[in-house]
Automatic annotation (TrEMBL):
This is Thymidylate kinase. It comes from the Eukaryota. One of its GO terms (biological process) is dTTP biosynthetic process. GO terms for molecular function: ATP binding; dTMP kinase activity; nucleoside diphosphate kinase activity. The gene is LOC111135526. It is an enzyme of class 2 (transferase). It comes from Crassostrea virginica (Eastern oyster). InterPro entries: P-loop_NTPase (IPR027417), Thymidylate_kin-like_dom (IPR039430), Thymidylate_kinase (IPR018094).
Length: 208
């Protein structure tokens, strides 16, 4: 689906690391912690989060997710993809300069959520994202939708419904590839040391 294979990062390039998972699985918290650790290690790093709600496209998506406006399902899927594409030039520039990117959601979320709707196939949902920079590592945070529903403000946004999240979780399983690592977060957050080792392993593998 995406352009670059794991293990082909040139020396001096940054790593592209993505956190994925269903809503309220802890992705944002783990992204922040990994960014903070990399900063402490004086490793150039930049966080990204999709959808990026600061752009014009992102503001349309925000209105949709917060139930302030309705958008036809095909159209909103393309908006989510366009929101990723509009940041690709910045992402590529940073990667080529040696900056590691820590990304909260990516194309896999876009595919998993739209394919959870009636009348959509995973193959169709993949098409708009073909050619995006491919992650060196995807960290999938595994949490059941039932457990996620007990967290925070679950239910506030459009897709935060247990039935929807169950279908999304099944789609994520269909998208897993060799460069994914799955972490069970049902019993608490990831231990810092575990993703420190994960990053180091990714960095060594990508540079080889």
């Amino acid at each position: 689906m995406l352009a670059r294979k794991f293990g082909t990062r040139m020396a001096g390039r940054g790593a592209l690391i993505v956190f994925e998972g269903c809503d309220h699985s802890g992705k944002t918290t783990q992204c922040r912690r990994l960014v903070e650790w990399l900063q402490q290690e004086q490793i150039p790093v930049e966080p990204f989060r999709f959808p990026d709600r600061t752009t014009a496209i992102g503001q349309m998506i925000n209105g949709y997710l917060s139930n302030k406006q309705d958008i036809e399902d095909h159209a909103v899927h393309l908006l989510f993809s366009a929101n990723r594409w509009e940041l690709v030039p910045k992402m590529r520039t940073l990667l080529e300069s040696g900056t590691t990117l820590i990304v909260d959601r990516y194309a896999y979320s876009g595919v998993s959520f739209t394919a959870a709707k009636e009348g959509f196939t995973i193959d169709w949902c993949k098409n708009p994202d073909r050619g995006l920079p491919r992650p060196d590592l995807v960290l999938y945070l595994n949490l059941t939708p039932e457990a996620a529903a007990m967290r925070g403000t679950f239910g506030k946004e459009r897709y935060e419904q247990t039935d929807m999240q169950l279908r999304v979780a099944k789609n994520f399983q269909l998208l897993k590839e060799s460069y994914w690592q799955v972490s069970d977060v049902a019993h608490g957050p990831l231990v810092n040391q575990s993703w420190h080792k994960t990053y180091q392993g990714c960095d060594q593998g990508c540079s080889g």
